[in-house]
Design brief:
Length: 334
């Protein structure tokens, strides 16, 4: 498994941006947890706390015009790809200033300008969509790549194998990033998933790499290698990023899920906080002082508070437009 990679291969600016983005995701998710408990958020939310290094490391290897597909646990992927927290928050509040005019909610947020072709409430749903996006790039002669994020549970869906197969046969510029956080809802991955997920690449004839998903630098370089191959026309890669979600499967699960994760297991992963670990490395390397780190954190916290205000001040969409933007335009409907 790829663990720590050399910090020196990053620029200082990049490294600080990566720390900032991880903090932004953490503070966004923490705020959502509070807002959910206050009954402010319609619908379910699945938080990404603890897994921030995967999204930030991976997306830091992309250009804005590259694309990602995401999951039901997707806020972190979108923020890492450049989504604004105020428009994300408005979407979660169901307001018109959200990325989808409040009609997508947490699990269906899209921004074509940012290369975000959707969070997705269907487990595994983003895998064939991202593979199709990579096929479009190949077909049109563009040098873009697409990252498909999905969970360990999704790795058991048939579309995962179908997509890897066709991506391999056609040499598509797609990077399959499997986030193995140890659980599929309330069931340990080991009870559902045969063998090692990373080994599923070999029979398809594509490279597979297992990475420490709590090490943002290792993630960045594993994905960068895959991106380089994909842009050169050398086809797809599977990356299995091992990490852990700090929050429940969904907020509010305490009401029914019971204690399905040992306390010691949770404590051990919290000890391996990807943000603290990376921040400490930057301090040690004299790229960042503790005061600068604290200032980044309070700045991000303030942005999240402002995002809530923005969302609360944004109106709900008019009832008359309830069915607009839900279907692709067609001659029959026009
Ligand atoms: C096709 C489909 N089956 C089942 C569900 C219900 N469901 C939602 S999330 C989830 C577990 C997904 O686990 P994993 O892929 O490991 O992602 P994680 O939640 O751990 O990030 C399931 C079964 C669903 N949304 N879609
Ligand atoms: Mg999982």
């Amino acid at each position: 498994m790829t663990t720590t990679s050399a910090l020196k291969d990053l620029s200082q600016d990049d490294a600080i941006m990566m720390l900032r983005n991880m903090i932004r995701i953490r503070r966004f998710e923490e705020k959502l947890s509070v807002l959910f408990k206050r009954g402010k958020l319609p619908g379910f939310v699945h938080l990404y706390t603890g897994e921030e290094a995967i999204a930030v490391g991976a997306c830091s290897a992309l250009r804005t015009d590259d694309r990602i597909t995401s999951t039901h646990r997707g806020h972190g992927h979108l923020i890492a790809k450049g989504a604004r927290v105020d428009r994300m928050m408005a979407e979660l509040f169901g307001r018109v200033d959200g990325y989808c005019r409040g009609k997508g909610g947490s699990m269906h947020i899209v921004s074509f300008e940012l290369g975000i072709i959707g969070t997705n409430g269907i487990v595994g749903g983003g895998i064939p969509i991202g593979t199709g996006s990579a096929w479009a790039d190949r077909h049109l002669g563009r040098d873009n790549v697409t990252i498909v994020f999905f969970g360990d549970g999704a790795s058991n869906q048939g579309v995962f194998f179908e997509s890897m197969n066709i991506a391999s046969v056609w040499g598509l510029p797609v990077i399959f990033v499997c986030e193995n956080n140890g659980y599929t809802e309330w069931t340990p991955t080991s009870e559902l998933t045969a063998g090692n997920i990373v080994d599923r690449a070999a029979p398809m004839g594509i490279p597979g790499e297992a990475v420490d998903g709590n090490d943002v630098v290792a993630m960045r370089f594993a994905v960068e290698r895959a991106v380089e191959r994909a842009r050169k026309g050398e086809g797809p890669t599977l990356i299995e990023a091992k990490s852990y979600r700090w929050n429940g499967h969904n907020e509010g699960e305490e009401a029914f899920a019971g204690a399905y994760r040992p306390d010691e297991e949770q404590a051990a992963w919290r000890e391996r906080d990807p943000i603290l670990a990376f921040g400490e490395r930057l301090v040690e390397n004299e790229w960042l002082s503790r005061d600068e780190w604290a200032a980044i954190d309070s700045d991000e916290q303030a942005q999240i508070e402002a995002a809530v205000e923005f969302a609360e001040n944004s109106p709900f969409p008019d009832a008359e437009e309830a069915l607009d933007h839900l279907f692709a335009p067609s001659k029959e409907r026009a």
